[in-house]
Amino acid sequence: MLASLDAVGPPLACVDDAGTVRWSTASFAAALGPAWQGPDSVRHWLGADWPALCAQGALVRERPGDGAAPSDSAAGVRRWRLVLSSPTDGLRWLSLAADDDPDAERRRLAERLELIEEFGRTGYFERDPRTGEGWWDARMFRLWGLPEPTDGGAPAPPYGSLVARIHPADREPGGFMRSTETAGMHDARIRVQHPDGRWRHVHAQWRVVHDAQGRPLRVVGIHTDDTEVFEKAQATEQTLGDMEAALAFAQIGLWRQDLATGHVWPDRRGCELLGLPYRADGYPMAVTRAQAHPDDMPALLASYDKTVRRGEPSEAEVRYPAPGGGWRHTLTRRILRHRADGAPTVCLGVMIDVTRLVEQARDATEAVDRMVLAQQALGLGLWHGAVGSGETWWDEQMFRLRGVQSAARAVRRDEALSFIHPDDRHRLADAYRTFDEQRSGWTIEYRVVWPDGTLRWLASRSRTVGAPGAGPARHFGVNWDVTDAHVAEEALRESARARAESEAKTQFLSRMSHELRTPLNAVLGFTQLMQLSPEAPPAERARWLAHVDEAGRHLLALIDDVLDLARADVGQLRLAMQPTPADEVVASTLPLVAAAASDRQVVLHVEAGPHTVLMGDPVRLRQVLLNLLSNAIKYNRRGGRVWVTTSRAGGEGVIRVTDEGPGLTPAQIGELFRPFHRLGAERSGVEGTGIGLSIAKMLVDHMGGRIAVHSEPGQG
After folding, report:
1. Are 466 and 488 in contact (CB under 8 A)?
2. Are 683 and 704 in contact (CB under 8 A)?
3. Which of 220, 450, 467, 627 could be bridged to 692 by S-S, CB 3.0 to 4.6 A?
């Protein structure tokens, strides 16, 4: 505090009751001049006016000038206004001010004291230990978070009301009042809570004055707000702790080296990385170097030379002994520190344990080597590219898979598609679009055509790396040849088809033999009856001949149907394709089923739409419609209805046959067009061979048309 007053410079002195100067500022001594600076000279100068000054607190005195201080007259006499404070512990403050404007000087002094308090974050207080009453300046109220007085000071709050604001851990038994029992200087560091809940760190300093009988008479002191200093110190301590933890977590050691002696001081972690026990006095440089792997010495010496000889920062990777044997990889970095004159004095450095990184890098290199070996063994082609760029980078194997010899290079998307079989390009183009829009990978197989015309199958797998919104995403993928797999798969399919066809032919022959045997048995049976009964009545013989005729015609129809299937199977089915009006086909077919419809009491309805022309063989078209109408009548309910409609849909001619029969399940629809499959109708008593719909579908397919069925159980 006194040092601060001396630095600010007001003419102040501390004097006792006798007027003897105990302490003064430099400006006080300068104002008096060399001849008046001694304690006795000041007391002599005050003289008989000292009692008046003590009583009034102020007076004006003249001091002859001596050339050391400005004077107001030719005689060198200057008038000074002396201001004396109230006694405190037997001492008073004495201030000097030129008498030309004593109020201005007093204001300047007050401003300087206030400035000292403000910059020092200090409040002043007095307290009578006998009564507990006291006085605070405005700064004290502000420091404790209490409303500030308007006149610069006010009576101090009762001490008991302040205790609750002090942190419990800082409340000493007896506290401030107990300290008044001991005269002299006291201090304490306490935390004070403001009304808003914030804590302020306060350094309290006070002096206890006793009377002649040793009883407490007066307490004066200051409170200084150390919150900012404390918080900065705490933050610094926290930062240092965090730094120490970070260095330990990152396995970083620190060291310094005296360039004059070469002595090295590693910290504990540095010694651990060097493979040496920790020593506070460090190690000679020769000892630390002896720990390095011999093969790493050239790199270590080159790093040292770069920094110490040339003044440049440097680093080197050096191995040091690891616990339990082997070597630990460290990365050592060093810089120089210089004196004010620029001469280097100390080399500072860090040591970082990079053993795990080195091992990971080695593992990664080995993994890459294994992957390259596997890639070459499996014939994998690798590619990658940015999403949406329209360009990918291919390695050499990607080109070899397409029958082309080329170095690895970037490939535009149109060039990539040019290798693809024309029938597969649309699939790959769609995959590219999905790839770019949705950032999703693909799994796809397609054919490529080599320059010599060879056709090969390739499999492609890809994935996207990079989340949406996280920067440019990239595609990565592989290609490999799967031609052999496709050839084997096709061979299996051919074998399966051959087995299926063989089984189908076996079933066909079995069922055909059964279907042919039935009418043949009828022919033979009735023929034998006529041979064995020559005397049978003519009417009976006529009936037998009618059965023979019916069986023969049925046999002929079966043979014709089989021949149609056989011709279609070997590609010998003859068709006379020509435009044929649909209503003519319907009109020429209806009479052929009229008798059957009448027997079943089924009503036929014809609904002709716009003029519809079919492109097909008229005879075969009639044969198809006849089969459909026959089925619709045979399998209809008695008294049901059948509709025949003609229309156009999407530029095509359509004939639709609808009935009110029992309907079909999805499983039955799947078997509907297979030869000799009657879907259980063989147990219904309805005549049929199960071949009519097969022939109808075969004929429609050969004429370039389509036949389909829509049905639900119970709805025809």
Report:
1. no
2. no
3. 627
